[in-house]
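User: Please predict the structure of the protein below. I'd like the answer in structure-token form so I can feed it into my own downstream comparison script.

Assistant: Understood. Taking the following sequence of 132 residues as input:
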Amino acid sequence: MNPNPAALRILLLAGVAYFCAMAVAHFFGIKVPLLFVYYDVPYHAYQDKIISFAVVAYACLFFAAAARREVVPAALVALAVTVLGLAAVNLSDALASVLDGRSTAAYWLQTALFAGYLVVLAVLHLRAGRTA
């Protein structure tokens, strides 16, 4: 199969870098927005260690997708499930119960950034398929 076009490959590799940074942040408990979606809610350190290992799987998947076009749909599905999962958490009573009336706007913004990244990747992948 033909390799990914440069723009798609670069954005997938940017995802690899992002997911690696997210894994490091979760492993070491560096709670900053974008690397921690729910950066200002209570958590248990062991949970973030588990998340850090899971995020490495995203980095590996996106690296494979950058190298081989046929892997891109799997990366897109994983990212779409993540967007849907974050939206469900944002709407959940469980999150509301720890926010004590605070806004979920920051979480929705981060969810929207993931969704935007998904859309851009999907469009680039579809365009690449038409030119293959």
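That's the full token string. The chain has a mean pLDDT of 94.
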